[in-house]
UniProtKB/TrEMBL annotation:
Listed GO MF terms: actin binding
Pfam families: Spectrin (PF00435)
InterPro entries xref list: Spectrin/alpha-actinin, Spectrin_repeat
Keyword annotations of the record: Actin-binding, Repeat
Lineage: Eukaryota, Metazoa, Chordata, Craniata, Vertebrata
SUPFAM superfamilies on file: Spectrin repeat (SSF46966)
PANTHER family assigned to the protein according to its UniProt record, in alphabetical order: SPECTRIN/FILAMIN RELATED CYTOSKELETAL PROTEIN
Name of the protein: SPTN2 protein
Gene this protein is translated from: Sptbn2
Length: 204
């Protein structure tokens, strides 16, 4: 990766360059201290060398910061695309079946609770990164960051709406099956009472 290669290059260049600059500064200082006839020229060259070295270090630092910012931006776009794909995939995974009886409907309800837990954290990271990056960028890049975030947010809102709709449907289905079971149990009880009444000896 370019950012890592440049970081390694910058580290190596800084270390080697600093050694060489330090050695030349020590040599210049020795010449000046020894009363060399070209003291003024040596001092001038030393100052020029140190200034050029400081400029080069600043240039490497600026380049490193630009590469880091570019990496962050590309990583954000990659993460946004990944999250959007995951959200769409989760939308496809949302089943329509609600169960044939109470036990399968309750099992579907448990599965749906696990599903909702899985999808909860999907968009949070993209929104957090977008908020941070939008402050660091202006113009077209900031607008693109917002577009990516809005795309994820919209898909997330649709998924959450579908998920909530399914949760309500499953709740209604479970309630319906529980009601039907209660009705059946009550009818069976009434049939039992009727059989007891009809089975008793009639008065003479």
């Amino acid at each position: 990766m370019l950012r890592d290669k440049f970081r390694e290059f910058s580290r190596d260049t800084s270390a080697i360059g600093q050694e060489r600059v330090d050695a030349l500064n020590a040599l210049a200082d020795a010449l000046i201290a020894g009363g060399h006839p070209a003291n003024a020229t040596v001092a001038e060259w030393k100052d020029g060398l140190n200034e050029a070295w400081a400029d080069l270090l600043e240039l490497m630092d600026t380049r490193s910061q630009m590469l880091a910012a570019s990496y962050e931006l590309h990583r954000f776009f990659h993460d946004a695309r990944e999250t959007l794909a995951q959200v769409r995939e989760k939308q496809k995974q949302l089943p329509e079946e609600v169960g044939r009886d109470l036990s399968t409907a309750e099992a579907m309800q448990r599965l749906h609770s696990a599903y909702e837990h899985d999808i909860q954290a999907l968009s949070a990271q993209v929104q957090e990164d977008a908020g941070r990056l939008a402050q660091a960028y202006a113009g077209e890049k900031a607008a693109e960051i917002r577009r990516q975030e809005q795309g994820v947010s919209q898909a997330w809102a649709e998924l959450r709406g579908s998920s909530q709709g399914r949760r309500r449907l499953l709740l209604d289905t479970v309630d319906e099956f529980r009601f039907l079971r209660a009705v059946r149990d009550l009818l069976l009880w009434m049939d039992g009472v009727r059989l007891q009444i009809e089975g008793q000896e009639r008065p003479r």
